[in-house]
Amino acid sequence: MNKVKIDKLTKKVVKECEKQKRILAVAESCTGGMLCSHITSISGSSKIFDRGFITYSNDAKIDLINVKKKTLEKFGAVSKETAIEMVEGTIKNSLASLAISITGVAGPDGGTSVNPVGTVYIAVMIDDKSDIKKFNFPDKGREFIRKATVYEALLFLLYKLKK
Known about the structure:
Blueprint: H1 3-19, E1 24-28, H2 34-40, E2 49-54, H3 58-65, H4 69-75, H5 80-92, E3 98-104, E4 119-126, E5 129-136, H6 142-162
Parallel strand pairs: 1-2, 1-3
Antiparallel strand pairs: 3-4, 4-5
Helix pairs in contact: 1-6
């Protein structure tokens, strides 16, 4: 995924949020702030962006956005259950009416038989309704997976905004 495509998509998301008077908050794990960085690189994003949580560790997920320790123990950090709790906690701990969470395995290490490298869950919450998508990106390196995740997160946000 190239930077130009991501930047164009980011501008569309920011513009649509502004049009709908939506406030956005983000929780990121495997992308480590990359989505927040793209959003805040857009002039005018301060009108729509409240905060970002970089919850790379399980402790951060628990402490910052109320992911239950039990959920992490039972399902793991890379799971639909964790992604949903992340997005719910992001809404609860922000001023946002729209939130997105990302959790996954960017590699090159950390993959398992259940969640190989490239497994990513993205959850969106808008007007108290959540939706989740699972992605299995090809293992073309850590940077590829992180950029592909940001691109898909932006597409998912735009889709939910226009629905």
